[in-house]
Each structure stands twice: as C-alpha cells, then as structure tokens.
C-alpha cells in the first residue's frame, strides 16, 4: 500500500511538472506583438525581472523570432552550466527560447542573458532572476510599458506585470488592473473601446499581468493610464502616458526591436549630405555677406549722427595715411591710392618709406598726427623675419593703430613667422592684417574699409576750404585710374 502511494505521488509530480513545462514553453506563443515582419525582433515584451520560489518549478524566456542562433549566459558564464552555477536547462521544443528548472534553488538566482544573432546583427537581453524562500507580502513590479507616442488611428498596447503578495486574509485583495486618469485627475474605469486582457504565469501563480489594447486610437484614448496593483493592504501605482504622435515621427517603438535590415541608410546618407551642404553654404554666405552688412550698418549709423558730430572728423587734414616702400610703389599708386580717394571718397595722404624699417617711426610720427588712420603696405618676402618684426614694432609705436596690407599669402607669412620666433608671432596676432588678393576683389576692399574710419560726408567736405597741400599731394600721384573697382 505504501509503495502504491509513493508511485502515485511520483506520477502526479511528473504530470504536474510536465504540464507546467508544456505551458511554460507556450509562453512565447501567446499574447505576441501583432506584426508580420520577418526581421529579428522580440515577439512580446521583454521582461527584465523574474521571480520564483525554492523547490518550485520555474522558467524564464527570451521570446524572439528572425534569429539564426541563440546563446544563454548566467553572470557571464555560457550554457551549459554545472550544478554549482545553475540548475536551469534549455527546453529545445521552445527553439531554445526557454530555460527551466523543475525544482529551483536559491543558487539559481542571477542575471541570465540571451544573445541573439542573424546574418547582420547581434543583440542581447538580460533577465534578473530572484528565487525567493517564501511568498512576499508587498507587490513587486516586473514590467511596465514606457510612455507611448501613437498616431491617431494606430494601435495601442500597454503591459504591466507584477509579483503580488499571497493573500493571508479572507477579505484581502490581490489584483492588478489598468485604470484611466481623466483630465480632472480622477481615476476611473477604462472605456468600452479599451480592452484589458489579464494573464497569469503558469510556473508562478503569484505573477499576474494585464494588457491594455486599443485597435484604433482616437482622441479620447490619449492621456495617462495607471497600473494599480493591490496586494493585501498595500497598493502600488505606476503611470504611463500616451502622447499624440504626428505622422512620420518615431516614438521609439511600443515594442523592443533587436535590429533589422530596414535601416534607412539611403535617407540617412541624403540627410547627412544635405546637412553638410547647408553648413558649407551657411559658412560661405557668412563669409561673403557678413562684412558687407557690417559696413552698411556703419554707414547707416553715420548718417543718423548729428551734424556737429560728423563735422568733428574734419578736425584732421586727412582720413588715411598710406605708407609703402619703393618696391610696392606701382601697386599703391596705380590701385590703392586712386581707389580710396576717387571711389570711396577718403582724403588720402601718401608717404614713401625708406627701405630699412629702423627709421619708420621717425618718418611717420609727424605725418600721423595729421591723419585719422594709418595703412601700411608690406611685402613680407622683401624682409627677413627680424626686419619684419622691426617694421611691425615701428608701426605699432605710432599713435595710430596700423592696418597692414600684406602682399603675400598668409600661409607663407605664418611659416616665416615661425622662423622669426614667438615675438614675431605675437606681434602679428596683435596687428590688424588685411591680405591683398586682387584689385578687383570686392572682399579685400570691404575688409579694408571696415578697418578704417568712415570718410566724411559729402556735404561736410564741401563746407571746408580746400587744403593746398592735399591738392599738391593728389597732383603728385602717378598711375592709371583704370584700376578702380
């Protein structure tokens, strides 16, 4: 009789275990995402936390499709595991998506990771398994959907799952359900168009969940929902907000994707190219138009100034003192002087400098007192780095801050500056430099005029007497006026 009783118990235990195993294996085939795509993805919500009890059946899952291989790890150790690592084993009939143990132990607790691979992608998902000694009193949330962005007319799917406490009183309530938060902050029942589907884990009956689905989202479906978990006298609430999504915007997905081959590379490449082109165009437009706009703004402010203030510019005999050496005389007399004088209406005073820059200060200090600004034309290739440093120091010692027009390209000048030491480099950085390009290049004249004060207004000039010395200076200039821009 005792033998018969033992055999009956064993058969019953095997039957229960087999039923639990079969039901656990079917976990990944029910309540799946409504999608027909074939790329690698989760087929239902990937739960990050699992609970089980000692000496009870327990299974964990990685519900996916579209993969070629799946590997399992516990705390970094690859499957299969020894008894000291984990008692969980694979269930091949579930395509290796399920691990189970007929009698779970506390040592089975840990982080279980499934690694999925196809031809192009590899993704992982980790489940933290906690094997408890006895049922808990307080509820423990295992999964709650994130906030959703859904187009009007689209589908909505929210999920909440928790380990609830075992009821120990006759009138105690243990339940999980979705509720709607209305605009007046009251919590009420769901609408008739909102469907709630309750779930119970077959391996652990204390784990319950609830799906909230809407087939076609309308305006009344947007807002906040709350997953309310009752466990004896304890109430736990977790909120999810459903936002309106404009067409074409991505909400991050109501499901978790493991990587697909549908990445819009062409659209990304076109977007990147368009962005780069826009940046280059903006930089070119800024370089071309900003100096002109600044110059126009200066003229507008000058016209708005009172007559007395505008007349103060005539306290000096000249607007610009232009100095140069003999080697640059043809360019200065043929282009720079006539353009400043005749086209841009500056009162120009010209001074020819000696070849050696050691005496430039003494040659210019008296003339500079008669002018409002100073322009020095330099050919750095005609001077050694030390001579160039001396020339700049002589010019910077004058009461007028010099504007230096360079007749060689700046990259060559930088190489020479490095040979001349840090003193030359620092002196160059503290000097207003304008690079000469071509007589017809408008950018050069705009930059030069921004560095100089504005010429006096035409009416103010006509009110003053003509300076004989200035007339003699103009008559002494040589060169063709056809170089004007």
Automatic annotation (TrEMBL):
PROSITE patterns, alphabetized: IG_LIKE
Ranges of compositional bias, category Basic and acidic residues: 460-475
Keyword Disulfide bond: yes
Highest taxon of source: Eukaryota
InterPro entries: Ig-like_dom, Ig-like_dom_sf, Ig-like_fold, Ig_I-set, Ig_sub, IL-1_rcpt_fam, Toll_tir_struct_dom_sf
Skewed-composition ranges (Polar residues): 476-485
Positions of the Ig-like domain: 34-130, 139-243
Record keywords, A-Z: Disulfide bond, Early protein, Glycoprotein, Host-virus interaction, Immunoglobulin domain, Inhibition of host innate immune response by virus, Inhibition of host interferon signaling pathway by virus, Interferon antiviral system evasion, Signal, Viral immunoevasion
BP term (GO), one: symbiont-mediated suppression of host type I interferon-mediated signaling pathway
Region (Disordered): 459-485
Residues spanning the signal sequence: 1-22
Record bears the keyword Glycoprotein: yes
Function: Counteracts the antiviral effects of host IFN-alpha/beta and key IFN-inducible proteins involved in viral RNA degradation suxh as host OAS1. Acts as a soluble IFN-alpha receptor and thus inhibits the interaction between host IFN-alpha and its receptor.
UniProt subunit comment: Interacts with host IFNA1.
PANTHER family: INTERLEUKIN-1 RECEPTOR FAMILY MEMBER (PTHR11890), X-LINKED INTERLEUKIN-1 RECEPTOR ACCESSORY PROTEIN-LIKE 2 (PTHR11890:SF44)
Protein name: Soluble interferon alpha/beta receptor OPG204
């Amino acid at each position: 009789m005792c033998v018969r009783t033992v055999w009956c118990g064993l058969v019953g235990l095997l039957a229960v275990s087999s039923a639990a195993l079969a039901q656990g294996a079917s976990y990944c085939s029910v309540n799946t995402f409504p999608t027909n795509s074939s790329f690698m993805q989760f087929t239902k919500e990937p739960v990050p936390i699992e609970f089980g009890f000692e000496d009870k059946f327990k299974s964990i899952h990685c519900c996916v499709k579209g993969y070629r291989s799946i590997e399992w790890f516990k705390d970094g150790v690859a499957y299969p595991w020894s008894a000291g690592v984990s008692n969980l084993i694979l269930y091949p009939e579930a395509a290796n998506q399920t691990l189970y143990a007929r009698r779970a132990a506390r040592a089975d607790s840990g982080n279980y990771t499934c690694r999925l691979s196809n031809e192009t992608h590899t993704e992982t998902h980790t489940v933290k398994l906690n094997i408890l000694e006895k049922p808990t009193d307080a509820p423990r949330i295992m999964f709650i959907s994130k906030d959703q962005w859904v187009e009007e007319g689209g589908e909505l799917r929210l999920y909440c799952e928790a380990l609830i406490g075992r009821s120990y009183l006759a009138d105690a309530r243990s339940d999980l359900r979705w509720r709607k938060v209305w605009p007046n902050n009251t919590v009420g029942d769901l609408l008739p168009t909102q469907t709630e589907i309750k779930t119970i884990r077959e391996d652990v009956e204390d784990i319950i969940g609830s799906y909230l689905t809407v087939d076609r989202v309308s305006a009344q479906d947007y807002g906040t929902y709350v997953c309310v978990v009752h466990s004896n006298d304890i109430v736990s609430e977790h909120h999810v907000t459903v936002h309106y999504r404009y067409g074409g915007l991505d909400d991050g997905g109501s499901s978790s994707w493991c990587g697909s081959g549908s990445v819009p590379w062409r659209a990304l490449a076109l977007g990147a190219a368009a962005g780069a082109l826009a940046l280059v165009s903006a930089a070119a437009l800024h370089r071309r138009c900003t100096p002109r706009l600044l110059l126009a703004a200066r003229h507008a402010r000058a016209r708005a100034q009172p007559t007395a203030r505008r007349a103060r510019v005539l306290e000096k005999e000249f607007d610009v003192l232009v100095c140069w050496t003999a080697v640059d005389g043809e360019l200065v007399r043929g282009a720079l002087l006539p353009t400043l004088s005749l086209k841009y209406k500056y009162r120009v005073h010209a001074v020819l400098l000696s070849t050696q820059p050691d005496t430039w200060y003494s040659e210019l200090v008296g003339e500079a007192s008669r002018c409002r600004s100073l322009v020095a034309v330099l050919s750095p290739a005609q001077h050694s780095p030390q001579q160039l440093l001396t020339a700049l120091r002589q010019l910077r010692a004058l009461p007028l801050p010099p504007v230096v027009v360079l007749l060689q390209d700046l990259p060559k000048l930088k190489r020479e500056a490095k040979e001349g030491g840090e003193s030359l480099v620092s002196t160059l950085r503290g000097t207003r430099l304008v690079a000469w390009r071509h007589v017809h290049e408008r950018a050069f004249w705009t930059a030069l005029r921004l560095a100089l004060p504005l010429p006096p207004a035409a009416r103010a000039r006509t009110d003053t007497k003509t300076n004989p010395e200035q007339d003699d200076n103009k008559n002494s200039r040589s060169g063709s006026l056809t170089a004007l821009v």
